[in-house]
């Protein structure tokens, strides 16, 4: 069992940056694939990015490539999402998630993840 707690959300102007953090409890964080998802009002939850257990592999949704960066610090049991060049359409609740498997292909569907955080709100003003 692992508990995930996101932080770092807030209000930012378009073009600005935010760094989200997701702190995990437990001793097995370094064995989990980690992902970020987001959900805007009235929309389905969508995949943002994923990172392998060791941090060597990453995968992004097309609309986030070049703007968002996922990385992790296993010594701190934390995964991050650096978000640059933010747009109003990036406004959403952002969730981190953990997948216990060490799949060869990084998961991008929410049903593939086992544990979820409570989410952190990101609001981008125009």
Description of the molecule:
It contains no helices and eleven strands. It has strands at 4-7, 10-13, 18-24, 33-39, 46-51, 58-60, 68-73, 78-83, 92-99, 115-116, 120-125. By secondary structure, the chain is mostly beta strands. Strands 2, 4, 5, 6, 9, 10 and 11 form a seven-stranded mixed sheet that branches. A four-stranded antiparallel sheet has the order 1-3-8-7, with no helix packed on it.
Spell out the blueprint of helices and strands.
Blueprint: E1 4-7, E2 10-13, E3 18-24, E4 33-39, E5 46-51, E6 58-60, E7 68-73, E8 78-83, E9 92-99, E10 115-116, E11 120-125
Parallel strand pairs: 2-11
Antiparallel strand pairs: 1-3, 3-8, 4-5, 4-9, 5-6, 7-8, 9-10, 9-11
Main pleated sheet: 7 strands, mixed
Portion in helices: under 10%
- Average pLDDT, to the nearest integer? 95
Runs in which pLDDT lies below 50 for 5 or more consecutive residues are: none
Q: What is the helix tally? A: 0
Proportion of strand residues: over 45%
List how many beta strands DSSP finds: 11
Alpha-carbon distance between the termini?
40 Å
Using only C-alpha atoms, the radius of gyration works out to 13 Å
Order of helices and strands: EEEEEEEEEEE
Q: Which structural class fits the helix and strand makeup?
A: mainly beta
Described by the principal axes of the CA atoms, the overall outline is globular
């Amino acid at each position: 069992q692992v508990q995930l707690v996101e932080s770092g959300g807030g209000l930012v102007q378009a073009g600005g940056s935010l760094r989200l953090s997701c702190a995990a409890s437990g001793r097995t964080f370094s064995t989990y694939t980690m992902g970020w998802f987001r959900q805007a009002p009235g929309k389905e939850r969508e995949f943002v990015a994923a990172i392998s257990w060791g941090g060597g592999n990453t995968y992004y949704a097309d609309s986030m490539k070049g703007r968002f960066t996922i990385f992790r610090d296993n010594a701190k049991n934390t995964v991050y999402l650096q978000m640059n060049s933010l747009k109003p359409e990036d406004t959403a609740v952002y969730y981190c998630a953990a997948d216990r498997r060490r799949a060869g292909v990084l998961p991008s569907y929410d049903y593939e993840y086992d544990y979820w955080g409570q989410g952190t709100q990101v609001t981008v003003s125009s």
